[in-house]
């Protein structure tokens, strides 16, 4: 992995934070798309009521992360939230081989083509064969929605007890302040990063337009229906992979950014 994309020593710049003590921990670090755009990366660890752990969009497995995991419980689930968020699946799968690995259709083939480390997937989210259950413990605490109309084949998860939406590339929350806070550079520096930021912040209408005119253009109705199902969930916090965590009021942010899609889904039935 090129150091232009991720830091050569992630332990020095990673932020390990308990968002909900003893329940949700985030792992945040710099990540530069194409080596130029400051996107930021984030993995999320959720501790279930039975003490097992679910890891979403895992990032670098440093010694500090291993120690944190050991203090929380046993890793039972590892989820790649889309076909892009998988580069660290190999190390996590090797370290926790008993964990069930979840991901979207097409990811095993992509990893094989790229000659990534072998990973056995327990559950693949597919449009033709929808997943209705992971197991009783997981289903008791999580809802999930496969957004097959998204170009990256997104899977969104709701941790029901903490009312937390966990997602990768469905919605960004630029800038990536937390993810770049240890690197010693501004999260908004650079012309391309500023352009990117105009399309990925949740304050204006840039991202709203990008979601409508670009990301969902291939199957807007299918995209809208998935977004509407997520909108039915009860969540207040949102943990995106890119940009800062929305600590509260996330349902309102979701509604603003996907307003046109929600209207379309309502009209389409």
Automatic annotation (TrEMBL):
<protein>
    <recommendedName>
        <fullName>DUF4336 domain-containing protein</fullName>
    </recommendedName>
</protein>
<dbReference type="Pfam" id="PF14234">
    <property type="entry name" value="DUF4336"/>
</dbReference>
<dbReference type="InterPro" id="IPR036866">
    <property type="entry name" value="RibonucZ/Hydroxyglut_hydro"/>
</dbReference>
<dbReference type="InterPro" id="IPR025638">
    <property type="entry name" value="DUF4336"/>
</dbReference>
């Amino acid at each position: 992995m090129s150091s232009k994309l991720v830091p050569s020593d992630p332990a020095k710049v990673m932020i390990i934070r308990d968002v909900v003590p003893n329940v949700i921990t985030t792992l945040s670090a710099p990540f530069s798309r194409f080596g130029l755009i400051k996107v930021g990366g984030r993995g999320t660890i959720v501790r279930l009521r039975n003490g097992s752990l679910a890891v979403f969009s895992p990032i670098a497995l440093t010694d500090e992360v291993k120690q944190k995991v050991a203090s929380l419980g046993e890793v039972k689930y590892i989820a790649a939230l889309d076909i892009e968020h998988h580069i660290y699946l190999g190390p996590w799968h090797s370290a926790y081989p008993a964990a069930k690995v979840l991901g979207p259709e097409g990811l095993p083939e992509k990893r094989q083509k790229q000659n990534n480390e072998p990973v056995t997937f327990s559950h693949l989210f597919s449009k033709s064969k929808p997943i209705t259950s992971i197991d009783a413990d997981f289903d008791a605490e999580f809802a999930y929605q496969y957004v097959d109309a998204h170009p990256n084949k997104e899977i969104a998860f709701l941790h029901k007890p903490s009312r937390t939406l966990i997602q990768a590339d469905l919605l960004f929350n630029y800038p990536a302040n937390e993810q770049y806070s240890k690197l010693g550079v501004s999260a908004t520096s650079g012309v391309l990063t500023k352009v990117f930021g105009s399309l990925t912040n949740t304050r204006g209408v840039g991202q709203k337009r990008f979601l409508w005119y670009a990301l969902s253009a291939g199957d807007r109705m299918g995209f809208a229906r998935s977004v509407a199902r997520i909108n039915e969930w009860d969540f207040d916090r949102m943990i995106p992979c890119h940009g800062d965590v929305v600590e509260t009021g996330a349902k309102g942010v979701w509604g603003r950014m996907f307003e046109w899609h929600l209207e379309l889904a309502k009209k389409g039935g």
